[in-house]
Amino acid sequence: MIARKLEVTYLPYDRTTRVPPGTTLFSAAHWIGLPIDSTCGGRGTCGKCKVRVINGRRDAGGRAQGAQIEASSADHRQLRPSEIADGWRLSCQTHIYEDMTCEVPALLRVPKAATMGLGRLVILDPNVRKVYLELAEPSMEDQRSDLARLKDALTEEGHDMEAGVAVLRTLPPVFREAGFRITAVLAGEHLVAVEPGDTTGDCYGVAFDVGTTTLVGTLMNLRTGMAASVLSTLNGQAPFGADVISRISHGMNGPEAIRELQDAVVTTMNSVLDDLYREAGVSPQQTYEAVVVGNVTMLHLLLGVDPTPLSMSPFTPAFMDQLNVEAREVGLHIHPHGYVQTLPALGAYVGADIVAGVLATGVVREDRLRVFVDVGTNGEIVLGSAQRALATAAPAGPAFEGSQIRCGMRATTGAIEGVQITDVIELQVIGGDVPAQGICGSGLVDAVAQLLLAGLLDHSGRLRLREDVPDHPLRDRLIDIDGVRAFLLADGVYLTQKDIRELQFAKGSIAAGIKVLMDILGVGPQDLDQVLLGGSFGSYLNPESAKIIGLVPPVDVDRIIAVGNSAGEGAKIALLSYRERQVAFELRSRIEYVELSGRPDFNDSFIGVLGFPQLAAVR
């Protein structure tokens, strides 16, 4: 159950947000994109994020009673007694347990911002920080250890630090060869490396979207916020099955099988990294962090964790929280002491890729009511606004991927990806002027929508016979294949009655999932401000066709927006801004997960949306 939210107002900006109890003032400000100065990442060591708490407690009549916020030990270290007495507190150490108002001082510096693919401005403040230091050399009067010398210097700069033995071994030679002029590389509070001289100009990280089918890697310049290189490829686990259930089934063969699956995806990621480095002229030693998102099964297999319990009720994963592990534990070819950061999941089948998509689209951070749908084998759905948000997963099956469709194929050269039916048929085929070899998911949705519009398919999903449409110019394309009705799209490529039923079940599952969430919130299509289609499939889906077949609620087409690889965008955002990363970490406390299995209202809704909408209702 989601806890009651508390209201926080920031002056002089007059910005208000509502947050769960226990959230810090610093994190609450991130939630609404309000920059509060900081260099330590909200760890209470730099003292720059101070705010003045004007009021907190309210009486029964709602009147402010004055600040009663106890000062933390960090407040006493970083603030003067007179400041504490006047209500100043470190926002990163002040937890919200009642409605509050606070005053934020003007920023001493204007934070850099990076424009992401979805048009969002993100404060450029990565978790990886490079700090150039000119350390005092040891003497008989100053016999501090190398580690203490480094830690003291970083503390003066407002950074906390902890160092592992592997990095500790590098301190003596690097310090002395560099004349104690070094650059410390921090990932959060972890010391990743000490480098001779000033290397602050070279700082990179990588964002990975590990999909079941496709894997996308983006090498990011953490100083500029720009992508240095991007590459996508097929997930090397493909030989073990096309979907997560197939991968889990292979993993059931024992620890060696799980190692095979892990090796396959890590090898793919390292191959992508090699190409990214070569294209950008960057070395692994300059790449200090990777943010990785994917569905729950993919992240289990990446880390070599048995995902078997995900395949059976009650669908319990080994972990859903965000994890931060050393790259060498995973075998990822970035800096040997770098870190791999994952994002949290919302449920067994609503994973970190969806959390990344929610982060990128800002679905639950605005007052607008929106539904975000990642259309695929598993249709993940998030519905809501800043007031309340719900998430679920609807088992759609592989129809959208082209599987179990008679002439279905992946979206590669020769696949029909778009269909227009008037008195003739116009096909959009991937690869341009090449013969059609099959049909992919977007083409399937288009074809069925166009058949409905052309009157060759009724709203129950039944293909008409030739005698039903004697005057239609395309009646001769209504054919029979092995006793099954079909429609001929191109030479050797056709759509069968069974294919249409497969699509009905897939779209019906997702549409029913959306309806269940809308019923829980007590809203209807007229209340929706936007429908966002995520994932690679969502990028190519025709919004009009999605509406015609009833995959999405009947809203104006201009409110149905394809947001592309939102998971990859979210991974990049989390890499470039620790503030946004904290927002992602908080999403589990902001979004209620709804399990559809066994819900009578899901079954009822599914039956209700299995057919195609009447065209008059759609229009």
Q: What does this protein structure show overall?
A:
The structure is a single chain. The relative contact order is 0.10. 30% of the residues lie in helices and 24% in strands. α11 (352-361) packs across α16, α11 (352-361) packs across α17 (578-590) and α13 crosses α18. By secondary structure, the protein is of the alpha/beta class. Residues 62-67 have low confidence and may be disordered. A six-stranded mixed beta sheet has the order 13-12-11-14-16-15, sandwiched between helices. Strands 27-26-17-18-19-28 form a six-stranded mixed beta sheet. The protein has 19 helices and 28 strands. β11 and β12 form a beta hairpin.
Biggest sheet record: 6 strands, mixed
Order of strands, main sheet, comes to 13-12-11-14-16-15
β-sheet strand percentage: 15-25%
Helix content: 25-40%
Structural class: alpha/beta
**What is the rounded distance between the termini?**
39 Å
Shape field? globular
- Please give the oligomerization state of what you see: single chain
Total beta-strand segments: 28
What is the tally of helical segments? 19
Q: Could you tell me the radius of gyration in angstroms?
A: 27 Å
Could you list the spans in which at least 5 consecutive residues all have pLDDT below 50?
Answer: 62-67
Mean pLDDT: 89
